[in-house]
Amino acid sequence: MNAVVIERLVKRFGTFTAVDDISLTVARGEIFGFLGPNGAGKSTTIRMLCGLLTPTSGRASVGGFDVATQPEEIKRSIGYMSQKFSLYDDLMVEENIDFFAGIYGVPAERREKRKEYVLWLAGLHDRRRAMTGELAGGWKQRLALGCAIVHEPPILFLDEPTSGVDPIARRSFWDLIYQLSAAGHTVFVSTHYMDEAEYCHRLALMYRGRIVALGSPAELKSSLTSHHLFELESTDALESMRALEGRSGILDVAVFGGGLHVAVDDERTGGARIRGLLEGAGIEVHRLEAIEPSMEDVFVARIEQEERSAG
Question: pTM for the full model?
Answer without folding.
Answer: 0.84
